[in-house]
Amino acid sequence: MVGSIKTMKHHSNGWSAQNCNGLEEKLDELRSLLGKADGDPLRIVGVGAGAWGSVFAALLQDSYGRFREKVQIRIWRRPGRAVDRATAEHLFEVINSREDVLRRLIRRCAYLKYVEARLGDRTLFADEILKDGFCLNMIDAPLCPLKVVTNLQEAVWDADIVVNGVPSTETREVFEEISQYWKERITAPIIISLAKGIEAALEPVPHIITPTQMINRATGVQMQNILYLGGPNIASEIYNKEYANARICGADKWRKPLAKFLRQPHFIVWDNSDLVTHEVMGGLKNVYAIGAGMVAALTNESATSKSVYFAHCTSEMIFITHLLAEEPEKLAGPLLADTYVTLLKGRNAWYGQMLAKGEISLDMGDSISGKGMIQGVSAVGAFYELLSQSSLSVLHPDEKKPVAPVELCPILKTLYKILIIR
């Protein structure tokens, strides 16, 4: 393992001929499985340009973008989002601190607009800077230049693979629009969802709706073509080639070929069949990360306090997952590691810290400038609503009487009081 990591670090700044050949073989294999003819590029589209969605597209562009006749990689984001003056000033500092980025912008004749924005003489837009490799939610970590499309129909109508990078709270709406552009399609696309969160549905019986299920209901694409990818990682660190892993979950047909296609020396992608457990845990980790941030701030980063919180929150997460998933995988290894890294360093943990310190307020909403959507807030409401239903009652271990499951989740109840009831 140590030797492999050293090798990965040594080659992180360039590709050997062997690496290129291996990448092209993986690309050809996936093209063959999808029935792509010579001269017809594999079309991969990222939908949504948050931190993880942008990094995912950039990873693919770095790996496969050189094979232009065989693959086309694009990313869609909504147009019109202005970059405020403070962010433009910070972006200018980031550019000038990175010689490689500075030289790239000068070569592309794109540097002057950042100077003008720094002086307040020009307004930059999020889709504009994304083309140069700057994600609005991750300014400090420049990416490679990306092909950006602001028209959703243009982006997705002929896509072979669609990567869902929009928040779970927006997934249904976006894919309902996408379904209008797929009415005349002969073959269904493959969809990889990166979204973490759930909706609660109470009829005909209380149940969860995960992002992959939202996509299925919105588009009619069969579940065997919809997968979820997640893992114990931070987007910017993955792009900086820190060693990481992830799991792609779904039906047998596509998960193994896609795991192979996505796997890189520093980003190991495994596959797993348990889609629901991974999506539920993906939503829950954001809930409990907010609490972890609060505990860290209120105890002055006490290691003991944070470890006690970790013990209690993972107990609640295991209880909830076993309640909601029919045959949940044992919650160990990658699933708990995903929770661990999110509690350590993620936007939801940051949000909890800032709330506890009084540096932001609930009145600012759950979409924060420079961070994006704090998905844990809506997830708190959804899980609380679902687990409050008496029809899901469980036996209280001490009182020996039926109670709603939320009564056995004191952290979730407290987060609901703080974030929702206020």
UniProtKB/TrEMBL annotation:
It is an enzyme of class 1 (oxidoreductase). Its main location: cytoplasm. It catalyses: sn-glycerol 3-phosphate + NAD(+) = dihydroxyacetone phosphate + NADH + H(+). It is found in: Cytoplasm, Cytosol. Residues 146-248 form the Glycerol-3-phosphate dehydrogenase NAD-dependent N-terminal domain. It comes from the Eukaryota. Gene3D superfamilies: N-(1-d-carboxylethyl)-l-norvaline Dehydrogenase, domain 2, NAD(P)-binding Rossmann-like Domain. GO terms for biological process: carbohydrate metabolic process; glycerol-3-phosphate catabolic process. Its EC number is 1.1.1.8. InterPro entries: 6-PGluconate_DH-like_C_sf, 6PGD_dom2, G3P_DH_NAD-dep, G3P_DH_NAD-dep_C, G3P_DH_NAD-dep_N, NAD(P)-bd_dom_sf. GO terms for molecular function: glycerol-3-phosphate dehydrogenase (NAD+) activity; NAD binding. It holds the Pfam family NAD_Gly3P_dh_C. Keywords: Cytoplasm, NAD, Oxidoreductase. GO terms for cellular component: cytosol. Residues 274-419 form the Glycerol-3-phosphate dehydrogenase NAD-dependent C-terminal domain. Belongs to the NAD-dependent glycerol-3-phosphate dehydrogenase family. This is Glycerol-3-phosphate dehydrogenase [NAD(+)]. It comes from Salix koriyanagi. The lineage of its organism: Eukaryota, Viridiplantae, Streptophyta, Embryophyta, Tracheophyta.
